[in-house]
């Protein structure tokens, strides 16, 4: 299989590229101004928001679109330039070079589900500017793929954690030095997924040719953010952190990120579980695998 991965130097993208290469695939990865690459990957250095970039004359079995600005980028114009305009530019370059595009999104598209269980049939109702821009990019891809007879699938991930991510940099390290604070009381329900399972799901969707599908993807264990953090603290013999008022958290991290973090979310992963077996069915197993290695 020949695959193109955007965001191939990122947390999920680099691990996806590594997995695909280890399974014998030929992988092309788009990276932007980063020197770290994956062994065996064909590197394409490009800024997707600049339409002058080039893609090799290769027919790809699948294109994984993972490149995106995060909610930590507070500038809405910059978010739109990267997440929407970058997607438009990418499609123009690959529309004659693939028949399958997989888009990585997040549970934020479901907004505030008011304690209902979210699945693939739930209402799309984004309530942050960040997610609205990302959804606009998704809608562009869906419509453009239909017009060009290209298969399209989307995966709505829960909070993806793992070694070397926000989990290590923002939670573990700050728990160790006593500076981590939970926004509010931390009593909001969250859906987590280990990066190995996120990568495994993306690979499986392509391997099984799951065309024109949507998947809600997180592990099978519902928990609150406080429970997730306290369990991590116990594993590293750190104190359980206190909370910080929401208005202070918004001032530091931005309103969109805090809303995405503190909106309660519970999901059903029944559909994705029919094609993929989770390596880490609960956050406890996933955290153990990180901290015990």
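Q: What amino acid sequence fits the structure above?
A:
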């Amino acid at each position: 299989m020949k695959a193109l991965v955007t965001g191939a130097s990122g947390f999920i993208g680099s691990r996806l590229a590594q997995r695909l290469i280890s399974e014998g695939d030929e992988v092309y990865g788009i990276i932007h101004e980063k020197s770290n690459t994956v062994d065996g990957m064909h590197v394409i250095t490009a800024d997707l928001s600049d339409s002058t970039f080039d893609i090799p004359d290769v027919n790809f079995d699948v294109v994984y679109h993972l490149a995106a600005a995060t909610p930590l980028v507070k500038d809405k114009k910059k978010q739109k330039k990267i997440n929407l305009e970058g997607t438009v530019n990418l499609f123009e370059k690959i529309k004659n070079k693939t028949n399958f595009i997989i888009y990585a999104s997040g549970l934020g598209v479901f907004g505030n589900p008011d304690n209902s269980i979210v699945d693939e049939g739930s209402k799309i109702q984004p309530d942050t500017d960040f997610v609205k821009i990302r959804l606009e990019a998704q809608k562009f891809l869906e419509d453009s793929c239909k017009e060009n007879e290209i298969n399209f699938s989307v995966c709505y991930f829960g909070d993806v954690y793992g070694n070397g991510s926000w989990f290590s940099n923002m939670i573990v390290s700050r728990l160790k030095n006593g500076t981590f604070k939970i926004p509010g009381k931390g009593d909001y329900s969250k859906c987590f997924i280990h990066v190995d399972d996120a990568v495994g799901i993306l690979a499986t969707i392509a391997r099984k040719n799951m065309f024109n599908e949507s998947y809600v993807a997180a592990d099978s264990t519902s928990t609150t953010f406080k429970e997730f953090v306290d369990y991590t603290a116990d594993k590293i013999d750190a104190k359980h952190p206190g909370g910080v008022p929401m208005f202070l958290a918004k001032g530091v991290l931005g309103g969109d990120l805090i809303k995405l973090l503190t909106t309660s979310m519970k999901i059903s992963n029944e559909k994705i579980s029919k094609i993929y077996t989770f390596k880490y069915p609960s956050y406890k197993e996933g955290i153990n695998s990180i901290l015990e290695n």
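Q: And what stands out in the fold?
A: The longest strand covers residues 100-106.
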